[in-house]
Design a protein that fits this description.
Layout: E1 6-15, E2 18-28, E3 33-37, H1 44-51, E4 59-64, E5 67-68, H2 74-81, E6 84-87, H3 99-103, H4 105-109, H5 115-128, H6 145-158, E7 163-167, H7 175-192, E8 195-199, H8 203-209, E9 212-217, E10 220-226, H9 236-242
Parallel strand pairs: 3-8, 3-9, 6-7, 7-8
Antiparallel strand pairs: 1-2, 1-4, 4-5, 9-10
Helix pairs in contact: 5-6, 6-7
Length: 246
C-alpha cells in the first residue's frame, strides 16, 4: 500500500467534561476511501471537526502528509491542512456568490489566484463533475439539490487536495442523484489518486465508493475491515446498525 496521507493515533476528545472519542486510531492511504460509520452521537462529526482544526483534542496525534498538525504552528499547520478538500453535508455554498465564485473561493481568497485564472479553473471543475459551464454565473438557489452537491464537490477538488472528506454526501438526494454523486466520488478518487474519508449513514453508498470501514462505537473504533467483510462481521453493534436496529 502507498504511503499513508492521514494517520490518526490515540486521539481523545472531551467536550463539556464528557469524553466523546477515546484512543481513536485509523489511517488512510492515497487512492483509498475509508468510511467512518456509526450511530448518532458516536463521535463521527467530532472526529472530522478535530481533524479540520475546529475542535481541540485532549491527547493523541493527527498527521497529514507526515506533519503532526497539533505540533505544527503557523504556515506549517496551514500547509498541512491545505491538503484537505471538503464536501459538506448540505454543500454549504455561499448564497451571495455565483457558482464559479463558490468553486474558486479558496483559490482566490487563500491562494491569491487571479479571478480570470480562477474562473477558468472553476469552469473546468464544473465539467469534471458533469455540470454545464453555463451554470457558472448562477446562484446556488438556482440549482437543484443534486447540482449543488456536484458544485460542492467541484469546490472541494479545485485546489487539488491530497485527501477529501465527504460528510453525508448523499443525504437529502433522490436515488438517481445519490447514485450520480457516488459515481463521481468513486471516479474522482480513481482519477486523482487522492485519499478520502466518508462520514455517512448510507450503506449503499459505502458499498459503491469505499474500500474499508471503521465503525465507531462508544467513542472508539469497535470494528474495522474491508467493505466486503461487513456482512460477515460478528460485532453485534455493527450488525444492529446494518439491519436498522440501531
Amino acid at each position: 500500500m502507498n504511503e499513508t496521507i492521514l494517520r490518526v493515533q490515540d486521539l481523545s476528545v472531551t467536550l463539556g467534561g464528557k469524553s466523546i472519542i477515546e484512543n481513536l486510531n485509523f489511517d488512510v492511504a492515497p487512492g483509498e476511501t475509508l468510511a467512518l460509520l456509526g450511530g448518532s452521537g458516536t463521535g463521527k462529526s467530532v472526529t472530522l471537526k478535530t481533524i479540520l482544526g475546529l475542535l481541540p483534542a485532549q491527547s493523541g496525534t493527527i498527521e497529514l502528509g507526515g506533519v503532526d498538525v497539533f505540533a505544527a504552528r503557523g504556515r506549517d499547520a496551514a500547509q498541512a491542512r491545505a491538503r484537505i478538500g471538503m464536501l459538506f453535508q448540505g454543500a454549504a455554498l455561499f448564497d451571495s456568490l455565483s457558482i464559479w465564485e463558490n468553486i474558486a473561493f479558496r483559490l482566490t481568497q487563500a491562494e491569491g489566484m487571479g479571478r480570470k485564472a480562477a474562473r477558468e479553473r472553476a469552469l473546468a471543475m464544473l465539467e469534471s463533475v458533469g455540470l454545464d459551464p453555463a451554470l457558472a454565473d448562477r446562484r446556488p438557489a438556482d440549482l437543484s439539490g443534486g447540482q449543488q452537491k456536484r458544485a460542492g464537490l467541484a469546490r472541494a477538488l479545485a485546489a487539488e487536495p491530497e485527501i477529501l472528506f465527504f460528510d453525508e454526501p448523499t443525504t437529502g438526494l433522490d436515488p438517481i442523484s445519490a447514485g450520480l454523486i457516488d459515481k463521481l466520488m468513486a471516479d474522482t478518487i480513481a482519477r486523482t489518486g487522492a485519499a478520502a474519508v466518508m462520514i455517512t449513514h448510507d450503506i449503499a453508498s459505502v458499498r459503491k465508493v469505499c474500500q474499508r470501514v471503521a465503525f465507531l462505537h462508544n467513542g472508539t473504533i469497535g470494528w474495522t475491515g474491508r467493505v466486503a467483510e461487513l456482512d460477515r462481521s460478528d460485532f453485534a453493534p455493527l450488525h444492529a446498525f446494518l439491519t436498522g436496529r440501531d
